[in-house]
Amino acid sequence: MATSSREQEARDYLEKHRIMELLNYLTSNLLFFQPDKPREYLVSLLERLRLAKITGVAFPFLMDQSNIVAMFEMMDSSNKGTISFVQYKEALNTLGLCTADEVLKDDGHGITLDKFKQEVYKRTKEI
């Protein structure tokens, strides 16, 4: 019983401090940019996060608009101008901007590039 209590405490701690979201975000950026010196890159990201928190200045979003557009276009291979809700959720998950078990509302409409960009920027700012 003590083990399950400790496990629950650990899960609660990670959730409270959003550690898994942070790790997903860092990992996604690491895989997306694939820097030559990954440890230094991660330290730099964490330092920028720390400075942003101290100064209250928004954390610089590491994926610029062209990266987001390129990601959207890869998913919209038929050039319909929309992606499916499943693709949308998977993209957010891949970027570390949502968890696999997070419930997102599917309104039945395709996700446009503008909606995709808005959501990526909003969720990045929340992190």
TrEMBL record:
All copies of domain EF-hand, residue ranges: 63-98
A GO molecular-function descriptor: calcium ion binding
SUPFAM superfamilies given in the database record: Dimerization-anchoring domain of cAMP-dependent PK regulatory subunit, EF-hand
Family annotation (PROSITE patterns): EF_HAND_2 (PS50222)
Gene transcribed to yield this protein: EFCAB10
Record-linked InterPro entries: DD_EFCAB10 (IPR049760), EF-hand-dom_pair (IPR011992), EF_EFCAB10_C (IPR056587), EF_hand_dom (IPR002048), EFC10 (IPR039879)
Source organism of this protein record: Rhinolophus ferrumequinum (Greater horseshoe bat)
A Pfam family the protein falls into: EF_EFCAB10_C
Protein name: EF-hand calcium binding domain 10
